[in-house]
Amino acid sequence: MLKRIDPSQTKAWTQLESKAREMREKHLKDLFAEDPNRFEKMKREHKDLLFDFSKNLIDAESLELLEELFSECGVKEGIQAMLSGEKINETEGRAVLHTALRNFSDEEILVDGQSVNEDIEKVLEQMQDFSDLIISGNWKGYSGKTIKHIVNIGIGGSDLGPLMVYEALKPYHNHLRCHYVSNVDGAHINETLKDLDPEQTLFIIASKTFTTQETMTNARSAREWFLRSNASENDIAKHFVAVSTNREKVIDFGIDPTNMFVFWDWVGGRYSVWSAIGLSLACGLGYKNFEKFLRGAHSMDRHLAEADFKNNIPMQMAALGIWYVNFMGAESEAIIPYDQNMHRFAAYFQQGNMESNGKYIDRNGQKVSYATGPIIWGEPGTNGQHAFFQLMHQGTRFIPADFIGFAESHYTMGDHHLKLLSNFLAQTEALMIGKTKEEVEAEMKAKGSSEEEIAKIAPYRVFEGNRPTTSILGQKSDPESLGALIAAYEHKIFIQGLVWNIYSFDQWGVELGKALANTILPLLSEGGEIDKDASTKGLITYIRNRRGI
Ligand code: F6P
């Protein structure tokens, strides 16, 4: 079981508070000036990936204190408990074993004393066989044509993971086209299906529970759309498969259980891209690439288990996040990939991070007295530079940011990639060093500005700098690097949850809205007495009037 230590009551916490007061007075420029080897000392490498932590507003002593905090909070023991299949998701009585899904070692992993290795292998084989059939064209639709389009219907973890990875690995796409439908807004399924041919479309209904309103609604609409072609009920088996933990519900929906790909309750929804939820990836990228993706994550799992604090990339990422959130006053973290294909990466970790660590009750059932999970946001660079970077450079918020990029590009046209990379480096440099008043004045003077103009305009052109960033670089965007990178972020989130003394693998906070939506739906469709607060009642009445209910 996980320790239940209030981190704010540890010895390290108090020391970190006073250390932070000291560090708030420092400038990153000075830290580099004091130590010419700062980059060498603070960079970490794993396979192709380089993590440069040196542009963070932190020093060796702060990191030592964070290491002590980790040890007082039982981080190592917590990691061990997760990896060995203990039921650390105590509020749901479940183990947390997404790492087992990408375990390529001989190590046997037990849940309730039973090995899960064989079950995992079986499903991987099933995914391989199925994706081979679809890709080769040996799987035929009801009219004898091959499958061209795959529509994954899911939401949250059953959508964001495969969608993000499919987009990120565009250069690895084969001739199939994968589409992802999540929103219950009919626009999503209608706009997706309007150009597709039912004879050549395969639906993957992806839902851990197979009860999620949005997914079931979209799945039923997809079935109706399919049956509006010349297809009959008997043809459904050739065009609908399911990925779920809930066999009964899959059968109830009318999907042949032989077309079902299972996963297990010890796989959290937002950690399920490694399971059969990745079926669209096996099809759209080819199984070999899907396996490479799993292997990349596995290598990061080994690294997590084996490296000591100082060399452990997820631990360093987690420590920095805690430092900023709990001691330096950060409320959010930006993730900015300089890779257009990674445009859903920040959205993916919005769920990963905010659904995991957006909690205010600790493992003792008490309200926490310190900040937990930050707000995660981000968009690709360079686009962000022309949108929200102004606030990052000169706003009043303190926003640590991760910049992610690759030395080489799959796209060799022109000099796009070097321009992209030079912007990446320029932004992290500018955020760090800023521009002093003296520099601005000298620059304006050299350009012939009058004294009066300089006095008036110079203050607006000053950048304080001292905005921290972590730069993450890889060789070239590929399945292994992406797998390792995602796993590093996953572990960062888990480690932070361990320190914050919260349960990172439940998500009770999403239930209330779902339950209330079920009480509102009949009020909108059938009418009747509205027993709601005045605002909700007024809004329901507005909709009813406009819709003539
Ligand atoms: O509502 C939140 C949530 O339960 C997520 O945790 C999950 O990823 C998503 O809904 C989808 O759930 P399911 O896969 O059961 O349809």
From TrEMBL:
| Organism for this UniProt entry | Croceimicrobium hydrocarbonivorans
The main location is cytoplasm
Q: Which residues form a coiled coil?
A: none
Its EC top class is isomerase
Matching entries from CDD domains are given as:
SIS_PGI_1, SIS_PGI_2
What's the protein here called? Glucose-6-phosphate isomerase
Query: Which locations, inside or outside the cell, does it occupy?
Result: Cytoplasm
Q: Which family does it belong to?
A: Belongs to the GPI family.
Xref: Pfam families: PGI
